[in-house]
Amino acid sequence: MADREVDTLFSLYEIYDRNRDSILWFLEDFSAKSYEEYKQKYHGTSKERCHFIRVCGFFELSGTLVKRQMIDTNLYFDVFNPSPFWQRAKSIIEGMRETRPFIYENFELLDQLKVKWAKKRRK
């Protein structure tokens, strides 16, 4: 394993840890079921909208690094699990894609890779 990958993992964990309030909000308090509901509840520069963007942005960044093979998937998925976040965000992101077709595409890819990784690991 390259030192670069370990440095990348530590940098990602630092970002994750710095945004723990957003992560906890996303898992415990985020409640929109559709993009329309999201826009009504979390509009403008609300704290909640910022939480949503921070969490999705973190996993978008992570997905980009994994896709570009800048961090090993085994290393990444031993520490992070994007799946519960993707499941909560999916319907909102699908609504966003009506006007921005590629938004958070690497977040979605990361979830798909995590599902495949978990299946291989169980065998």
Mind explaining what this structure looks like?
This protein is an all-alpha fold and 123 residues long. The chain has one domain. The protein has seven helices and no strands. The protein has helices at residues 3-18, 20-28, 35-41, 47-67, 73-79, 83-96, 105-122. The longest helix is centred in the middle third of the chain and has 21 residues, at 47-67. The radius of gyration is 15 Å and the shape is globular. The two termini are 24 Å apart. The mean pLDDT is 96.
Strand content: under 5%
Task: Tell me the total number of β-strands.
Answer: 0
User: What count of structural domains?
Assistant: 1
Cα gyration radius (Å): 15 Å
Given helix and strand content, the structural type is: mainly alpha
Number of helices: 7
Amino- and carboxy-terminal Cα gap:
24 Å
Mean pLDDT: 96
Q: Which assembly state applies to the chains in this document? A: single chain
SSE string, helices as H and strands as E: HHHHHHH
Helix content: over 70%
Main sheet attributes: strand count, strand direction, barrel closure: none
- Identify the overall geometry: globular
Unreliable segments of 5+ consecutive residues: none
Question: What is this entry, summarized?
Answer:
By secondary structure, this protein is an all-alpha fold. It is built from 7 helices and no strands.
Key structural traits:
single chain; 123 residues; mainly alpha; 7 helices; globular
Strand and helix layout:
Elements: H1 3-18, H2 20-28, H3 35-41, H4 47-67, H5 73-79, H6 83-96, H7 105-122
Helix pairs in contact: 2-4, 4-7
